[in-house]
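Reviewers of the previous submission asked for a worked example of the structure-prediction workflow described in the proposal, so we include one complete record here. The input consisted solely of the amino acid sequence. No template or homolog information was supplied to the procedure at any stage.
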Amino acid sequence: MVSKSEGKGVRFIMEDTEIDRILTPEDLSEEHLMIAETTKSFVQKEVVPVEEQIEGLDYVLTVNLLRKAGALGLLGADVPEAFGGLGLDKVSSTLITESLARGSSFALSASAHSGIGTLPLVFFGNKQQKEKYLPGLADGTKIAAYCLTEPSSGSDALSAKTTAKLSEDKKYYVLNGQKQFITNAGFADLFTVYAKIDGKDFSAFLVERTMDGVSLGPEEKKMGIKGSSTRPLILEDVKVPVENLLGEAGKGHVIAFNILNIGRFKLAAGALGTAKEVIRLSTKYANERKQFNLPISSFPLILQKLADMNTRSYVLESMVYRTSGLIDDSLKNLDYNSPDAGWISAKGMAEYAIECSINKVFGSETLDFVADEGVQIHGGYGYTKEYPIERIYRDSRINRIFEGTNEINRLVIISALMKKAERGDLPLLRKLGDLEPEIYDLLQKRKKDSTSAAEAYLVSAAKKIVLFVLGLSIRKYDRQLEQEQLVLSHLSDMIIQIYAMESVYLRSIKRYKKLGEGKAKNGLDMMKLYVHEGFDKIESLAKAALAHIEAGDSLLQRLAVLDKLARKVPVDSIKLKTSIGARVAAEEDYLV
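From that input alone, the workflow returned the following structure tokens.
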């Protein structure tokens, strides 16, 4: 089941979203649940028992496990049936990514292969390329890797120095250069490599491991994800057949950035799966560990931690599945056999690039928070390798760097928003012009007659606040706004909070209408808690931005508008966290 289209991406900051227009985990079909269960069962039976060997960087073991996963269809969810895959929807592949997360470093190897490793071919390969490579990638007999980063170019990917020169007989491109931090490099068979033709046209190539001139540097000695292979790829006069040019010459950036959009989204799904595992480990430990003759799960400070961990994970889950539904909608009519499939899919993926960056930032920072609190609950034992939380804590840190750093993704959110407005794809400037009467109207119509009315108002008010600050920023800086990185970061953080608040609000109300107050109670409490805390963050960010943008009487006038919009009765967060934490501890698992 997929959601009904919300129209164009990022419109959520300008208009309210109807409840029936989003996909939630409660909407998943029996088939979806079976796919998730199959994945979890595979990880529990095949991966967990050999985790220590995987962490020792056992290539043979990892490759064998990848082939077993491929035989079950876990690597081919995104590959069309015509090319040996299952051709499932993006919700299914999201469930697989989340459910694999329990497999630690193996999950990274599998996700890098089936995600950024295979998807360039799925979306941008021609029929001959797909027929040649995709069946092996889908069943795991061939492993893929994605090669964008270089020693001197990370976030600034287009400054890559790897070159490609067409041979005199026009049968080959000769590639020279080095790629850095390549996941799966140690055992990959096929590399998607980005290089500049004649040093200027940024393009993508399918490079086979067995081609002459392909070699690898040593394994990186990493802080975490030690069971995944991370090595440099070295290209020395590698002759790549012209038929292995992926997409069009000079259009590699279209492939690179749109595949990264999906990679960012899938990273959030993996972070969700790991966060749930941390909650399971932490509640189990807190119930077993006794101090002063009481389990530490009975202490309010521990309950608060469990409540915050579970609440943020619930919000992330709401965002991830909402976004999976949007991506499904944008790609649902795609004909993978069409020669234009790549460019049509690129347009569909680009539509929700902002949502993908939002998921990446929120997901990676949520997991870091949850893992850190998990270590704290474990106390001294959490700092030892005897307990898996130590490994999870180290592994989680890379997610804020992977797929574009969180700093870059924060800038992407605003830059993509402004570009959509400039192209006329988003009526942002018109919306900013109508903002003053809309603020007045919102204040006049503020409801007080139902349990969710306060939270509904806060979601709507948050949108007005970010548009208010964005409009003032554009008016002051105009095209120089892109130079004001701290203002942009504040605006991005407000937009991230709005997507989080609205996603959890809509999901919780939808659950309430479907399940009734009793079964939906914990979700409603978490929603109430998060919406109020998220709104407080938005208010604080807005004040900081306004203090930089305005001064004197003008600043006071702007703050007066903000204060009117932000006026609210605080919730009893202490009571809410105690109740939520107690329920999570009793469940001894992630709880909705």
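Residues 252-288 form the longest helix (37 residues). We consider this example representative of the routine output the project will generate in years two and three.
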